[in-house]
Design goal:
Oligomer: single chain
Helix content: 25-40%
Structural class: alpha/beta
Family: Belongs to the 5'-nucleotidase family.
Number of helices: 16
Pfam families: 5_nucleotid_C, Metallophos
Distance between the termini: 26 Å
Keywords: Hydrolase, Nucleotide-binding, Signal
Protein name: 5'-nucleotidase C-terminal domain-containing protein
Largest sheet: 7 strands, mixed
InterPro entries: 5'-Nucleotdase_C, 5'-Nucleotdase_C_sf, 5_nucleotidase/apyrase, Calcineurin-like_PHP, Metallo-depent_PP-like, TAT_signal
Length: 533
């Protein structure tokens, strides 16, 4: 989608080190607001290093709940000094990504959020990873509303009354309507179960905007867990949206920060106004702040914005640090157990776009664990962190593999396997988790080719040599149970499996066993997955 001229103007006027000046309003605003926003925290309470691996005391640590809370407190103080009311929002995916979630199932996240001052959160797909029961337990502990306008809970009594389509907050003389939406692909990305349905996000937003504006003038914020690309489409298609606070795609929208994909805010023209879109990457490593001057009709008269990186120099919030320490205490003995030593760290960088070392490691571990398998395929999005150089502990492994998935195996013909690979590379460039990391095979692909023709040469290693994939031959494939059941769009692993078994050993046990038995192996990229020249 082509962004408007306003987006280009926003980018050209952005100041990298200071808050950009607000645009001059046509009339005095009736309300002045500061939105503090985060998204896709993924249980990273102790922060991460630059490669998203668990923090170590001998290296600078980025993010972390206590420092993030400290930055939020500073943002609140600054806004109050400037005469602005503050609204603190969360774009979803608090769950899954560290041992804190694996062990405590949302209780640590809830405790931190309550002290941190979260005022509304949309549900991300990972809030459904352990089904409605865990989500319901989490929801009942919160002091703020969980939102998802396109989630149908009518057949799930556990969530009755716990999720709202929107909330209204009166703040600083303004009426703010916050509509939440969750990606419609949640059933393919997570485990919500058969009782929940995810409807059209666009229709849900449109319907709830009408309901909110029918009452009186309202500033509309869409708290979205759809991803940046879908947020832009939503903004361009629907009238009435003032701001989209986004999540899901882990996109950094910032002015003057390395790795930023677009300005903060990014502006897109809708049928009746400019929509401001913001998102703050992931893992609590950034905090976004969007300043708004609002007119009497609820429209934005002026805006400014910045994103702050949560660096080690930010003073941690003592109350939040104490909560993290409390929930960390029972985890220490478990996660400190050493399992391997690595000469070099393995970064998560690039695992959703191409071959990566930690993806090779996981695929080789799967292949070694299933003696009858000829090929291993695993999804890059199933790997949630890198591994550090030096001693690797159980805690590190659990951070890489937080989903409690199991090894799964199936028999599938070559033609259907090629379809699975086509699915795997179909979202290159969109930060999708389905990208295939493989062992026992190699292939080339062209992301610019038409759908169904992106996968080019495919070869399988049989009897020590690589031979072309035979579309009619049945191959034994090892993967994880999430993918085998059709997750991440791998429907061919479900519908075309000639036989299948999902209840293998836990993936973390598989990876630990492989690391222990292959202490000197190398998993550096070797060209097994390559872009066609």
């Amino acid at each position: 989608m082509t962004l408007s001229r306003r987006a280009l103007l926003s980018a050209s006027l952005a100041l990298p080190l200071a808050m950009p000046a607000l645009r001059r309003a046509a009339a005095d605003p009736v309300a002045r607001l500061a939105l503090l926003h985060m998204n896709d925290f993924h249980s990273k309470h102790e922060g991460t290093d630059a490669g998203s691996a668990s923090c170590r005391t001998d290296k600078p640590c980025l993010g972390g709940s206590a420092r993030l809370a400290g930055a939020m407190a500073m943002g609140r103080r600054d806004a109050t000094t400037e005469g602005r009311a503050v609204l603190q929002l969360d774009g979803g995916d608090q769950f899954m990504g560290s041992l804190f979630y694996t062990a405590h199932k949302g209780r640590a996240e809830s405790a931190v959020q309550r002290v941190m001052g979260t005022e509304a959160m949309t549900l991300g797909n990972h809030e459904f990873d352990n089904g409605p029961a865990v989500l319901a337990d989490y929801a009942r502990t919160l002091s703020f509303p969980l939102l998802s306008a396109n989630l149908d809970t009518s057949k799930e009594p556990l969530l009755a009354g716990l999720v709202k389509p929107y909330t209204v907050i009166e703040r600083g003389g303004a009426r703010i309507g916050i509509v939440g939406v969750t990606t419609e692909t949640t059933p393919q990305l997570s485990s919500p179960g058969p009782t929940l349905a995810f409807k059209s996000a666009a229709e849900a937003v449109e319907r709830n905007i009408a309901a909110l504006r029918a009452e009186r003038p309202t500033t509309i914020i869409v708290l979205s867990h759809l991803g940046f690309a879908e947020d832009q489409k939503l903004a361009a298609a629907l009238p009435g949206i003032d701001v989209i606070v986004g999540g899901h795609s882990h996109t950094l929208l910032a002015n003057g920060l390395p790795g930023a994909e677009s300005p903060h805010p990014t502006l897109v023209d809708s049928p009746d106004r400019a929509v401001r879109i913001v998102q703050a990457a992931c893992y609590g490593r950034y905090l976004g702040r969007l300043e708004l001057d609002l007119n009497a009709d609820g429209r934005v008269a002026a805006h400014a914005g910045e994103v702050r990186e949560i660096t080690p120099d930010i003073a941690p919030d003592e109350k939040v640090a104490a909560i993290v320490a409390e929930y960390a205490a029972p985890l220490e003995a478990w996660r400190r157990r050493p399992v391997a030593t690595l000469a070099e760290g393995l970064s998560l960088q690039g695992c959703r776009e191409g071959e990566c070392a930690i993806g090779n490691l996981m695929a080789e571990a799967l292949l070694a664990a299933e003696p009858t398998a000829e090929i291993a395929v695993t999804n890059g999005g199933g790997l949630r962190a890198g591994l550090p150089a030096g001693t690797v502990t159980w805690g590190d492994v659990l951070t890489v593999l937080p989903f409690s998935n199991t090894l799964a195996s199936l028999t599938i013909r070559g033609g259907a396997l090629r379809e699975a690979l086509e699915n795997g590379i179909s979202k290159v460039g969109e930060n999708a988790g389905r990208f295939p990391q493989v062992a026992g095979m190699r292939f080339t692909f062209d992301p610019a080719a038409p759908a169904g023709q992106r996968v080019r040469e495919v070869q399988v290693r049989l009897d020590g040599r690589f031979v072309p994939l035979d579309p009619d031959r049945a191959y034994r494939v090892v993967t994880n149970n999430f993918m085998r059941r059709g997750g991440d769009g791998y429907v061919s692993f479900q519908k075309d499996a000639l036989e299948a078994y999902d209840a293998g050993p836990a993936l973390e046990d598989t990876l630990v066993n492989y690391l222990e038995t292959h202490p000197n192996a190398s998993w550096a990229p070797d060209g097994r997955v390559a872009r066609a020249s």
